[in-house]
Amino acid sequence: MTLSWHDWQAPAYPGRLIAVGRDKHEALVIVYLITGRSPSSQARRIIEEAGALRTDVTDPQILAQGNPQLLLYECVLRHNDHLLISNGAQTMALLDAAEDQYNQRLPMDPLQILIDAHQRPFWVEDTRDGHFLDLAEYEPDPPHWTPRICAAVGPQHAAMSIVKRVGEETCKNFYSLPLQSGVFNIITTYAGEMVGPGQAIPSFAGEPLRVSFPAEEPEAITEAFYQAFAPRASTNQQDLRVSIATMRYSPKQRRIETHLWNRHPLEENE
């Protein structure tokens, strides 16, 4: 079922959100949203470099109160005509999997990219304490055990995945998704519930949602997501919005358009 934009109820606290779709001009459109409750999560912004998106630190001292290895990463990379998106450093694992398909001269398959990227451990050093993190597992941040969400999207097909903790086990779910013009496939790290300090935040459950585009232009799409996640008037909820990025990529023209909103924008002299 596809929800209209006006019928979709944006979750109160999604953590991070990935939306992938295709517009009426056959261009790929993705949205990456960061919300955060802690000062370290909020001490970030998204920046664009050479057609890719990554998170950047705005206050190193505040960010260091959290785990920089989990907070700073490439969130969107491009491999030929495919966009690769994730909520952590595992975006590099997606890129490796896409490159393996390309080198083997296999048809590019978004679902297989995600499966290959998660089929074996992908270790990186945690610069904070010298331990190693497996990017093919959920994040080691008890009590939340934040899921790792990913997407791969090409001209004809898309796929999404979520790796989360269920009980004491790791659950890895993969979804092959249709690309319908004017429709986003949306997945988030959390189910959207607000909980008290120290309580576990429920993870996203079920298949990715299908929601109609709120607009066509990247700037208007960014604005729509910005307004959708505004603090609700009926509550005393703080503003949890950190960064929103909308990227449109036309495979035919090899053209990328990006629009960013950041709580802490880049200064002109940076």
Secondary structure layout:
Blueprint (H helix, E strand, L loop, with lengths): L1 E2 L12 E7 L5 E8 L3 H4 L1 E6 L2 E6 L2 H4 L4 H4 L2 E6 L2 E5 L4 H13 L6 H9 L4 E3 L6 E3 L13 E6 L3 E10 L2 E10 L4 E6 L20 E4 L5 H11 L12 E10 L4 E8 L8
Parallel strand pairs: 1-14
Antiparallel strand pairs: 2-3, 2-13, 3-15, 4-5, 5-6, 6-7, 7-10, 8-9, 10-11, 11-12, 13-14, 15-16
Briefly characterize the structure:
This protein has 270 residues and is α+β, with helices and mostly antiparallel strands. The chain is 17% helix and 37% strand. It is built from six helices and 16 strands.
Q: How much of the polypeptide forms β-strand, as a percent range? A: 35-45%
- By secondary-structure content and strand pairing, the structural class works out as alpha+beta
Contiguous uncertain segments of 5+ residues: none
What's the tally of helices?
6
Determine the N-to-C terminus distance.
45 Å
Mean pLDDT: 94
Secondary structure: number of strands? 16
Largest sheet features: 7 strands, mixed
**Helical amount:** 10-25%
Question: For the CA atoms, what is the radius of gyration?
Answer: 17 Å
For the largest beta sheet, what order do the strands appear in spatially?
Answer: 1-14-13-2-3-15-16
Shape: globular
Please provide the ordered H/E string of secondary-structure elements.
EEEHEEHHEEHHEEEEEEEHEE
Account of the 3D structure:
The protein is an alpha+beta fold. It is 17% helix and 37% strand. The protein has helices at residues 39-42, 60-63, 68-71, 91-103, 110-118, 218-228; strands spanning 2-3, 16-22, 28-35, 44-49, 52-57, 74-79, 82-86, 123-125, 132-134, 148-153, 157-166, 169-178, 183-188, 209-212, 241-250, 255-262. The strands form three sheets. Strands 1-14-13-2-3-15-16 form a seven-stranded mixed beta sheet, covered by helices on one side. The chain has a seven-stranded antiparallel beta sheet with strand order 4-5-6-7-10-11-12. The protein has a two-stranded antiparallel sheet with strand order 8-9. Strand 11 and strand 12 (169-178) form a beta hairpin. Helix 4 (91-103) packs across helix 5 (110-118). The model has no long low-confidence stretch (mean pLDDT 94).
